[in-house]
Amino acid sequence: MGKMTVYHGSYTTVEKPEIINGRNTKDFGTGFYCTVIREQAERWAKRYDKGMVNTYTVRMDTSLKILEFKEMTEEWLDFIIDCRHGKPHDYDIVIGVMANDQIYNFIADYIDGIITREQFWSMARFKYPTHQINFCSPAALKCLEFLSSEEVAK
Q1: pTM of the model
Q2: What are phi and psi of 113, to 5 degrees?
Q3: 51-59, strands of its sheet edge to edge
Q4: For the segment 95-107, what is each residue's pLDDT rounded down to a tens digit?
Q5: Where are the domains of the chain?
Q6: What strand order describes the sheet that includes 66-68?
Q7: In 23-55, which positions are buried (b, 16+ CB within 10 angstroms) versus exposed (e)?
Q8: pLDDT digit string, tens, across residues 17-34
Q9: What is the chain's percent helix, strand, coil content, to nearest 5?
Q10: Residue 129 · residue 71 · CB < 8 Å
Q11: Which one-letter DSSP state was computed for residue 35?
C-alpha cells in the first residue's frame, strides 16, 4: 500500500503520537485521530489558543486489523454509538466519516429516542461528509512518520 499524507490538529507539535485514554468518548474509540483533509485539521487546531497542524506520512501495515467505512451506513452508525458509549473494539485502525457536531446531535437525538433511525438518515444524508483515521493501537502508531508542524491563526 502506498504512502499518504495525513494531518492532526492540536494545541502543540506532536512528533511522537500517543494513545491517550481520555474521559471523552469519540466516534471510533480511543486513539490518535488524523484526517486526509487539511482544512478539517485546521478547524480542529483552531479550537485552541495556539493551534498547530501536524503533518505525517502514513503507510498502512496490511497485517493490522483495519476497519474502513467508505460512507455513512447502518454499520457505521452502530459502531459510533457503541464507541460513544465506551464499548471497546479490537481494531488497530478505523477509517471513515466523522460524526461532526451536527451529525452527532442527530445521533444523540436517535439514542435518546427523540427521532427514529429513519429520521436520522433523512437529516444526516444532507450534511457534508468529513474524514477521520483513528490509530487505535501502538502497532498502528508505527505507521505514522512525523513530517512537520505549523501554527494556524484563529
Answers
A1: 0.86
A2: 80, 15
A3: 3-10, 51-59, 144-152
A4: 998 877 777 788 8
A5: 3-152
A6: 32-34, 132-135, 93-96, 66-68
A7: eeebbbbbbbbbbebbebbbbbbeeeeebbbbb
A8: 999 776 667 889 999 999
A9: 25, 25, 45
A10: yes
A11: B
